[in-house]
């Protein structure tokens, strides 16, 4: 028994040593990995360093581009697009409204009931729908048919307790979060795709018309009452709750901003008059670039692998 016990003890000791060796080895490897992680984070932090002085330089560079974009089309990295939105919600809006939000790999259809007098939203129903990958590079007809089909299914499920008199003839607010040359508050032509979309035949087309044609084919009695960018939609919501809201920023699949500008400052549209004396400008700042703005190897790699190189991969 003594020899057996000794053998067991020696065996256990050997196993313990082996386990300890494995654990020590793992810890050493984990430490080396962690050290590598810290090194990468340090390099990334250094590459993205933005001192207050550098931020001021970026602000000045953006201000220059903003003025240039307001002066002429194509004269700036910032498109500074007119939205033809010169009046924002004042909180007195009342009724049931529909909205469609297309701006990334998913789109949303919404039904919202407003009570007026700056009240909170009475009812809010939303349905999210992923866009099949193949439709992001197919044809405009296929994409908008899919959207119209989903919208019709949503409308057909309209609750019985909705007051039909408050439904604004099922007018639709269309949020289209891609660069558009706006021709009116209800229409605009697509300038280019971003965020993974690359449907060539849609460029230059009126996106509101594309949607309305698809809705008609699906037997949906609805018209586009407003075509806006998601930043403009965000600004409208902010202004509905607080009339001092004059700008909005989006940080998501892409990034953008809009704000209320004086019409006399929009030089490229001299003589432009609005009742309010102002107009919401869609900056399209996703492609803004300045030599003062840090750009890392990850930015370069992301840009190289993008379907739309040099678009919205810098800011």
From TrEMBL:
Q: Name one Pfam family in it.
A: Hexokinase_1
Keyword Kinase listed? The answer is yes
Q: Which InterPro entries match?
A: ATPase_NBD, Hexokinase, Hexokinase_BS, Hexokinase_C, Hexokinase_N
Ranges of residues in domain Hexokinase C-terminal: 247-312
Catalytic activity annotation: a D-hexose + ATP = a D-hexose 6-phosphate + ADP + H(+); D-glucose + ATP = D-glucose 6-phosphate + ADP + H(+); D-fructose + ATP = D-fructose 6-phosphate + ADP + H(+)
The GO biological-process annotations, alphabetized, read as:
glycolytic process; intracellular glucose homeostasis
Q: Which family does it belong to?
A: Belongs to the hexokinase family.
Protein name in the entry: Phosphotransferase
């Amino acid at each position: 028994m003594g020899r057996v016990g000794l053998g067991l003890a020696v065996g256990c000791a050997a196993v313990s040593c082996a386990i300890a060796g494995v654990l020590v080895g793992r810890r050493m490897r984990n430490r080396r990995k962690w050290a590598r992680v810290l090194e990468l984070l340090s390099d990334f932090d250094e590459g993205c360093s933005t001192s207050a002085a550098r931020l001021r330089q970026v602000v000045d560079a953006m201000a220059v581009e903003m003025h240039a974009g307001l002066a002429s089309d194509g004269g700036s990295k910032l498109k500074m697009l007119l939205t033809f939105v010169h009046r924002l919600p004042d909180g007195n809006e009342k009724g049931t409204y529909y909205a469609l939000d297309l701006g990334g790999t998913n789109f949303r259809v919404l039904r919202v009931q407003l009570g007026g007098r700056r009240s909170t939203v009475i009812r809010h129903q939303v349905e999210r729908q992923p866009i099949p990958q193949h439709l992001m590079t197919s044809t405009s007809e296929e994409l908008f048919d899919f959207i119209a089909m989903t919208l019709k299914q949503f409308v057909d499920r309209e609750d019985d307790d909705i007051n039909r008199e408050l439904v604004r003839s099922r007018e639709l607010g269309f949020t289209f979060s891609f660069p558009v040359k706006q021709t009116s508050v209800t229409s605009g032509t697509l300038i280019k795709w971003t965020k993974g979309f690359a449907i060539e035949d849609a460029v230059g087309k009126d996106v509101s018309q594309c949607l309305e044609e698809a809705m008609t084919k699906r037997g949906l009695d609805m018209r586009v009452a407003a075509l806006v960018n998601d930043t403009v939609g965000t600004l409208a919501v902010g202004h509905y709750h607080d009339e001092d809201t004059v700008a909005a920023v989006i940080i998501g699949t892409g990034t953008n901003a809009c704000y209320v500008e004086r019409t006399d400052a929009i030089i490229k549209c001299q003589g432009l008059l609005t009742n309010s004396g102002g107009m919401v400008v869609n900056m399209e700042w996703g492609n803004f670039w300045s030599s003062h703005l840090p750009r890392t190897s990850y930015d370069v790699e992301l840009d190289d692998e993008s379907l739309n190189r040099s678009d919205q991969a810098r800011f």
